[in-house]
Amino acid sequence: MFSGKVIVITGASSGIGAELAKSCAARGAKVVLVARSHQKLATARLALEVECKDRVPLAGCVDGASSLVIPTDVTQENDVQAMVARVIGTYGRIDVLVNNAGYGVFDRFAEAEIADMRGMMDVNYMGTVLCTKYVLPHMLAQGEGHVINIASVAGKIATAKSTGYAASKFAVIGFTDSLRLELTNTGVFVTAVCPGPVDTPFFERADRSGDYVRNVKKFMIKPQDVVRAVVNVIRRPRDEVVLPSFMRAAVRLQQLFPRLIKKVGKKWFTQK
Question: Which one of the listed residues 91, 134, 165, 212 is annotated catalytic?
Answer without folding.
Answer: 165
